[in-house]
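#lab-general

N.A. 3:47 PM
ok so I finally got the sequence cleaned up, no stray characters, all 427 residues accounted for. can someone with queue access submit it? mine expired

B.Y. 3:52 PM
send it over

N.A. 3:53 PM
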Amino acid sequence: MSEYSFKYGSTLCNFEIQSEDLLHILKPRYADPITDVQKKCIEALMNPIGTPPLERIINPGENVLLIVSDITRAWIRTNQFLIHIINYLNDLGISDQDISVLIALGTHRPSTEEEKQLIVGDEIYNRIAVYDHDCFDPEQLSYLGTSSAGTPIYIHKKVVAADRVILTGGIVFHLFAGFGGGAKGMVPGVAGLDTIQHNHRLTFYEGESAGLNPDACSNKIEGNPMRQDITEICRKVNPDFLFNAVLDAEGNFIEFVAGDFETAWLKGCNIIRQLYGVEVQQKADLIIASAGGYPKDINLYQSVKTMDNCIFGGKEDSVILLLAECRDGLGADEFLQWFQYDTLEKMEAALKQNFTVPGYAAYKAAYVAKYRKLILVSALEEKVVKKLGFIPVKSPEEALSLAYSLTGEHPKITLMPYGANTLPILI
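B.Y. 4:20 PM
back already:
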């Protein structure tokens, strides 16, 4: 027997596993953190991928709009690199008065002034005009036609009116867009509600009860209908430059990529694959996973990403033992409301009528509950966990005993101690 530790909230849980039952231990690969953020930012800006340097793109007197991620993406640490981009623009002769920042809220709630200050940093907040995008306000939007997938293209007027547009963000695996970052700063970031909902419905096949399109998934770009639509729309808007960050599981900067919004982003996606995509030779009967402790398991909504990653590492009808404290409950207010629909088909129909990301996360949770047996160690009420279709337990010992009773005496086991960050890739 060997003992393995998993993060649970701010504590650790230990399991004893028979060595002969162990298939894989999946962990992110190590990469050296950036020690001089300013230096690396400037290097990226001066050596872009797929575009000329900014000094050959932007001219003094032009107005420049920077699109940044909202407070739900605070892990990107925009305030640590945005100041270096803006100071660099100043060096090129662009005054603070000609620079503005637009927060890419997508469908999220408005930012508070305190959140705006946290996002951009104290100095930039006091120097530069910072605005929120509002996808629900037609007065803020310009219509730019229709994509080949039939998506009506509504984009914030400030983006369309700006002389130069710079997208910023961070790159991670994404549940249905393949990867975060890149053109997602444009759609859903600064797009209208009709654009966002039509684009997000591409995660499902057309038609009643047609189900999820499996190509709209993590780690897939080519052939992913949602991502291809996002890219097409972004190319129509044609932002001038991109600056994206790649971070490790501890929140340290690993790399900055800059240049063309697609070409530079693809380099960042490949780095994410190398860091967090872990090859497996066999799917497991039992996956023991942690979301990675607090804050990654702060609520169930945040823990759905771990569930989705586990799907890729286990056989159909396998068992997932998930450690997710969920000290703040379910997370998004509307998450539980989606479970009024008692089948995936009914939930799908409702999502096609009114797509929301919390609704999609609820669908994914319900999908996991249908096709896997998920044992959840959490602080959630037992009745709530059962309503979600999961098996509630209160201790790791009880969870492991139950897992063995469901899988048999010697299941093939994969351990995912950083489940929110690691994606099993079958070879």
